[in-house]
């Protein structure tokens, strides 16, 4: 229950960042970087009486209906919560904080800040095995019926929306929107990677038993011990290998420093860890 609540708290933070990036930075300059939100910005040009937040809700309802018909119920409640959550937040922002003009006159600043903020939010949502809906559903339909890769399907959908933005708002907006699509993908990947980075720690120490006990009992993580022989001394050694978060690694380093200043330590960054104590294998 606690784990589930933690997941939804993170999803709520993520979708809030997506909504902030969209409403305060991308929407005022009509920058459409794909997804249901980008399509809503384009449609708003032709139907200005409908707010973008309301259009996002309508588009998501339509896409989920199409998804249920063609690919079944494989969305998950977390994706439904995140996609409609973004739409509702944008609708609330429109009511509470009406934007009479952009925060900055420079369209590039608006684009970069909007994409970075919203892409970090998407990365947080994706990292909880959910998504913000939109073009993900179109990509799944393309994958199922035409065998197009999911990543390529998302790109096709988003590029189609940026072309529509260029048609609606002019070539300059279309090109900036295209830049936003490309930047969005890079920032999402970087955000997910940074959230999943762990430290693989290899330790050679005369106090391996004490260190192993600390890792298991105090840090709540596992470790593996290997028998080895020193190439220089020829003496038998124990090599301890463990994988920790950055915070836990600092605690372990402090312990080793206090008990064995001659310990030999190798540290690697690992970008994905699946198994007990880390990411569940079914979510990989």
TrEMBL record:
GO terms for cellular component: plasma membrane. Keywords: Cell membrane, Membrane, Transmembrane, Transmembrane helix. The chain crosses the membrane at residues 7-26, 46-72, 103-126, 173-192. It is a multi-pass membrane protein. Its main location: membrane. Residues 222-275 form the DUF2179 domain. It is found in: Cell membrane. PANTHER family: UPF0750 MEMBRANE PROTEIN YITE, UPF0750 MEMBRANE PROTEIN YITT-RELATED. This is YitT family protein.
């Amino acid at each position: 229950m606690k784990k589930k609540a933690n997941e939804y708290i993170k999803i709520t933070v993520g979708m809030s960042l997506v909504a902030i990036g969209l409403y305060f930075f991308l929407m005022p300059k009509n920058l459409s970087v794909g997804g249901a939100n980008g399509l809503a910005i384009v449609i708003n040009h032709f139907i200005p009486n409908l707010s973008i937040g309301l259009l996002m809700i309508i588009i998501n309802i339509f896409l989920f209906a199409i998804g249920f018909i063609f690919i079944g119920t494989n969305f998950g409640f977390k994706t439904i919560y995140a996609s409609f959550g973004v739409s509702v937040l944008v609708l609330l922002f429109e009511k509470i904080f009406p934007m009479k003009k952009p925060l900055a006159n420079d369209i590039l600043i608006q684009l970069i800040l909007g994409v970075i903020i919203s892409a970090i939010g998407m990365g947080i949502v994706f990292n909880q095995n959910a998504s913000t809906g939109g073009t993900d559903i179109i990509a799944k339909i393309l994958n199922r019926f035409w065998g197009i890769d999911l990543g390529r399907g998302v790109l096709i959908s988003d590029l189609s929306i940026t072309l529509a933005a260029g048609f609606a708002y002019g070539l300059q907006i279309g090109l900036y929107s295209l830049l936003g699509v490309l930047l969005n993908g890079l920032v999402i990947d970087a955000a997910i990677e940074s959230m999943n980075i762990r430290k693989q720690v290899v330790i050679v120490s005369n106090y391996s038993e004490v260190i192993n006990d600390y890792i298991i009992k105090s840090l709540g993580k596992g470790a593996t011990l290997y028998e080895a022989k020193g190439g220089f001394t020829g003496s038998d050694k124990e090599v301890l290998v463990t994988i920790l978060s950055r915070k836990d690694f600092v605690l372990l380093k402090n312990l080793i420093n206090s008990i064995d200043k001659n310990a030999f330590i190798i540290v690697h960054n690992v970008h994905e860890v699946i198994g007990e104590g880390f990411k569940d294998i079914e979510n990989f």
